[in-house]
Amino acid sequence: MTRFQTHVVENQPPDFAPRDLWADDVALREAIDREGGGAHVDRLACYGALAGSELYALSFDAHRDKPRLRTHDRFGHRIDVVEFHPSYHRIIDAAIGHGVAGLSWAGQVSGAHVARAALSYLHHQVEPGTSCPLTMTHAAVPVLRHVPALREWVEKVASSSYDPRDMPIADKAGVTIGMGMTEKQGGSDVRSNMTTATPLATGDTASGQEYALVGHKWFFSAPMSDGFLVLAQAPGGLTCFLLPRRLADGRKNAFALMRLKDKLGDWSNASAEVEFMDARATRIGDEGRGVATILEMVMLTRLDCMLGSVAEMRMALAQALHHTAHRRAFGKALLEQLLMRNVLADLAIEWEAALALSMRVARAVDAMPRDPHEAALARVATAIGKYWICKRTPAFVNEASILPRLYRQAPLNSIWEGSGNIQCLDVLRALTREPESGAALMAELGAATGMHTGYDACFAALKAALVPQQLEEAGARLLVERLALALQASILLRAQSPVADAFCRSRLGGQHGLALGTLPTDLDFGALIERVLPV
Ligand SMILES: Cc1cc2nc3c(=O)[nH]c(=O)nc-3n(C[C@H](O)[C@H](O)[C@H](O)COP(=O)(O)OP(=O)(O)OC[C@H]3O[C@@H](n4cnc5c(N)ncnc54)[C@H](O)[C@@H]3O)c2cc1C
């Protein structure tokens, strides 16, 4: 070394990836086994290896070069095209090819929803922006199935082919779906939608009842999708529609992308503002039943919000463990510092509980068509889990992340598909108006009694509090938080998870502060940390 070679890099960790996200994740593998996804482990193993290597590497470029809106071609024609980085397309292509959007609908193999949920979790860890079109595409299927004339859409939405070309769906093997509900004057309150839908004189055609839509949408993500499920005011009230990007004759549908949103995170994906100018759309469900119709989609997208948030927790924690294992301070690796071990162990508990709840909800969704009890549980547990897991993620990532993009991404899932208060009000609605939801929830919680004294006390208190006539709107957040913690504890206890006792003591038993990293010091931090990741 010469006198002036001052730039010596020391005490930095090696690259985090390539990694096998499936092989590394013991808790995921246990959850798949427990929740009935065992028939799909080969597929999951394959995708976990791909996601942690090639897709992880591609994701950095997809986030660096943000999508660009091209409103016109050079001759002045309106084109309304969004250009994405090539990595964005390669990543979606891999995801769709491996079933991240379509596995749930491919055949009748039991546990397909559970496995698809795991695919979504693996995918989101490396590239959260593409999760948005993938989840909307996956979730659109039950809604599209309402209209027999949309069978080609259903088949192509559920296919394993990705084709980003801007052309009519007849010329494509696979298609993607976006969603437009939010307008300037109302996001949560979709009943205030002003977009109008006028029935066309063609009446009932072979392709379903056609309408012309006039109005705007203020948040229209993945605007290069082939079709969009949108809400608009028909003569009979708020109604759900499928609005194609290209009409069957090849013409561009009559909508204009006004601008792209300047978003905090989610940079690889585009979200647009859009104007409909007599845009053609096919009605789905009855006029006036728009919210009820699109809710079938929303339950699935809410599950993906949970999975996406757990995935962000997982990636943040894995990165933190990798970093602290290789970074030294004050004479030891950070991972060996006692206070750091408390933080990491606390994060490990939080992530594993969130994963356990998400995968349990995936099983309930999987069983919905054949089991009314599971359907009732899925209904209420998605809202509970969506509220709590998405709410916890920004605080979690704040403790753990070394990636700015994870930090920017973390708040998103708690906003879209019903923000925090909306989820809590939804839980209250289910508990007060749908007795089967409350019964399914209590059965799920009751199944873990007798296993932990702290849990039993929590269960008794919740049982006493869950009197539908006494549930107060202003107290909904606290109630839903307690339900979420009890649900997580119940699943961990029955799974005999190594984190169950620590979870119950810290989250239910009051042996915890308000910040993360405040676990009781007699816990075996090493055992909790070692479970997360081989370092
Ligand atoms: C990255 C991103 C992507 C998105 N993509 C899409 C998309 O593809 N399609 C789409 O349609 N929308 C999309 N959205 C919009 C999203 O769904 C809305 O932002 C969301 O529904 C909230 O609506 P709002 O922003 O108008 O807030 P508001 O509805 O004005 O709510 C503001 C606040 O008030 C609270 N609140 C509302 N009502 C009540 C009440 N009764 N009691 C107590 N509190 C209440 C809410 O919880 C929230 O905290 C996206 C948003 C983001 C951030």
* Main sheet summary: 7 strands, mixed
Record field, number of beta strands: 11
Overall, the morphology is globular
Write down the overall mean pLDDT. Answer: 96
**Number of helices, where a helix is a run of at least 4 consecutive DSSP H or I residues:** 16
Estimated share of beta-strand residues: 5-15%
The percentage helix is 40-55%
Bound molecules: flavin-adenine dinucleotide
Distance between the termini: 32 Å
Radius of gyration: 24 Å
Unreliable segments of 5+ consecutive residues: none
> What are the secondary-structure elements, in order, as H or E?
HHEEHHHHEEEEEEEHEEHHHHHHHHH
Going by helix content, strand content and strand pairing, the class is alpha+beta
Task: Give a structural overview.
By secondary structure, the protein is an alpha+beta fold. Helices cover 49% and strands 15% of the residues. The chain contains 16 helices and 11 strands. It has helices at 26-34, 41-64, 86-98, 112-126, 128-144, 151-157, 290-326, 338-367, 372-400, 404-409, 420-433, 435-446, 453-465, 476-494, 500-508, 525-530; strands spanning 68-72, 78-83, 177-180, 196-205, 208-221, 227-234, 237-244, 255-260, 271-284, 328-329, 332-333. The strands form 3 sheets. Strands 3, 4, 5, 6, 7, 8 and 9 form a 7-stranded mixed sheet that branches. A hairpin with a 5-residue loop joins β1 (68-72) and β2 (78-83). The model has no long low-confidence stretch (mean pLDDT 96). Flavin-adenine dinucleotide binds next to β3, β5 and α11.
